[in-house]
Amino acid sequence: MKNVIKNFFKGLPIILLLIFNHSVSAQVIPETDAEKQAANLVKAYQAELGMTVEQASAVYKKITEILVRENEIKTGAASPDEKKNSLIDLSKEETEYMGTILDPKQWKEYKKMKKTLQPI
C-alpha cells in the first residue's frame, strides 16, 4: 500500500502537467479564420506592446469578435456607404475597448500600430 501511494505522488506532477498542457492547448489553438487572424494580430501587438498574458487573452477575444462582426458587415446586404460607416464604428468600438485593457502607454502605441495592422 505504501508503494502505491508513493508511486501515485511521484506521478502526480506529470499527470497535472498533462492536464494543464491539454487545457491550455485547447484554448490557444485557433480554428476559424477569424481566430487565426486574431492570433497573428495579437502576436504582432505583443511584440511591441509587451502585454501580460491576461491582456493578450482579452485582446485576442475582442479582436476575434471584431473580425467576425467585420466579416458579417462586409458580406451583408447593406450599401457600400452603410458598410463603410459600420466598419468605421466597429473599429472605433475596438479601439475604445482596448483602452480598458491596455495601460495608457500601450494603448497609445496600439492606436499607432492599428492603422497599419488593421486598416479599415
Distance between the termini: 66 Å
Specify the overall morphology. globular
Number of domains: 2
Amount of helix: over 70%
Number of separate helices: 5
The sequence of SSEs as H and E is: HHHHH
List low-confidence stretches.
6-26
- Broad structural category: mainly alpha
Radius of gyration, CA atoms, in whole angstroms: 20 Å
What percent strand? under 5%
Main beta-sheet strand count, sense and barrel state: none
Extended strand count? 0
Overall pLDDT level: 82
Give the structure's gist in a few sentences.
The chain is an all-alpha fold and 120 residues long. The protein has helices spanning 2-28, 33-49, 53-75, 80-101, 104-117. It folds into 2 domains: 1-30; 31-117, no CATH class.
Write structural notes for this entry.
By secondary structure, this protein is mostly helical. Helices cover 86% and strands 0% of the residues. It has helices spanning 2-28, 33-49, 53-75, 80-101, 104-117. Helix 2 (33-49) crosses helix 5 (104-117). The termini are far apart.
Keywords:
120 residues, mainly alpha, 86% helix
Helices and strands in order, then pairings?
Blueprint: H1 2-28, H2 33-49, H3 53-75, H4 80-101, H5 104-117
